[in-house]
Amino acid sequence: MQEGTSLKNQSYSWVVIFMIFIGCFVGAFAQYITAVFGGELMSNFNMGPVELASITTAPMLGGIILSIPAGTLADKIGIRATVTIAGIIGVVGAAMRIFADSYTMLLIASILLGFMPVFISANGAKIAFEWFDGKKLGIAMGIFMAAGTCGNAVAQAVTAHFPTWKFACTATTVLMLIGLVLCALLIRDRPKGATPPPVEHVMKNMGNCCKLPYMWVIALVMIFVMAYNITACTFMPTALNVNGMPLASAGYVASAFSFGGLFGSIFLPVIHDNLFAKQPRIGCIVYGVAAGGLLLIGWFFQGVLVTGLCGFFGCFFAIGLMSVALTAMGFIPGMKPEYMGAAGGFQNSARFLSACFVPAYVIAAIAGTNYTLLFVMCGVCGILGGISGAIVPDNHLRDTQP
Question: Same CATH topology for 1-191 and 199-402?
């Protein structure tokens, strides 16, 4: 689907992808500060654990509904205008949290806050395809995919030093405002001289995307990998603690999982393009089997070092597989440039849907407190993600220069 290749991979391309990283990063940072202030929030707003979890996941729940409209809107009015509108709504939501005096108001504010990262992440793939090709496309996709994980990790580390919830909300509002201004000023829809894709009715674009069989296969990759990642990161620390590992040590293991996903999203596409350029399907199977197998090795041979390393590389391969699959998306049969916003929104919805429902309401509901069964199911999700990825044709290096 690539046109105007000579206009891509410019120096300004990296400015644009960095702005996308910033937008997703500040949104994820603002979302996950609730984890640190959970006790204060439950006390001040008379909430239980379920209500607290709903505040944290509210932006993701909004993502299930809003990702497809976000992508199709960008196809219609452009990425820059879409991101600016969503950013303004997100900043308003962040500011509302400062003055929220009830659970309901805090929930509404959290949903609005999610507009900025949801609308940007829904269009991340579209932006990457507009500005990059060849091996640099995989790198750009990885940078975009790493933003949410990075924002989560930094939020967990930094907000512990914030004195109060309101101070944290004020700081994140300022951070999101800075992100909004930078994105509005520096993001461009496409390189100078590039021909805009034809504008079609947004629902027609979405309908055309849904008719592409490989779109559904890539959605399976998103669903299986997110189920793997969220289940492993959520339940492994608790399971290790139940089996006698000190909570602090289990926390170190959990951080290894998160950092593995962060590095995998950036570097696995580079490895993939160099080692498996001619046999990308084999690469996807290798990544899925490695992700599932390493998780089980880490569980059956428990220890801070062993489980931490296995978790790091398991998530490295799993999250990196999503970047590989999204890179391949622009080259599946029938894909056109004007579909990319809708396609990115579709895959974003699949990711959020899996993250919100599969770990808690499928895997944990079946396994209960049988953690061995839980991690076996989690490992199977990783393997199925690799198999699904192997079905998708990956032609993004064809007829391009490395």
Answer: yes
**Which homologous superfamily does the CATH classification assign to the domain defined by 199-402?**
MFS general substrate transporter like domains (1.20.1250.20)
Q: Is 211 helix (H, G, I), strand (E, B) or coil?
A: coil
Assign 79 a pLDDT band (cuts: 50, 70, 90): confident
Token digits for 163? 């004195």
**Sequence ranges of the domains in the chain:** 1-191, 199-402
Burial of 120 (0-12, 13-18, 19+ CB in 10 A): buried
Element (H, E) at 42: helix 38-44
**pLDDT exceeds 50 at position 402:** no
Q: Provide Rg for the chain, Cα atoms.
A: 20
CATH number at 1-191: 1.20.1250.20
At 2 the pLDDT is: 45
Do 300 and 243 contact (CB within 8 A), yes or no? no
Q: Which of 374, 370, 122 is nearest to 230 (CA)?
A: 374
Question: Which residue's entry shows tokens 């308003």?
Answer: 92
Cβ atoms within 10 Å, residue 163: 7
Residue 160 has pLDDT above 80, yes or no: no
Q: Which two tokens stand for residue 44?
A: 């001040």
- pLDDT, tens digit, 9 for 90 and up, residues 110-121: 889 988 888 888
CB-count burial class (<10 Å; 0-12, 13-18, 19+) for 39: exposed
Token look-up 């509904």 returns: 65
Interatomic CA distance for residues 127 and 137, integer angstroms: 10
Polymer length in residues for the chain: 402
Q: Tell me what pLDDT residue 372 has.
A: 94
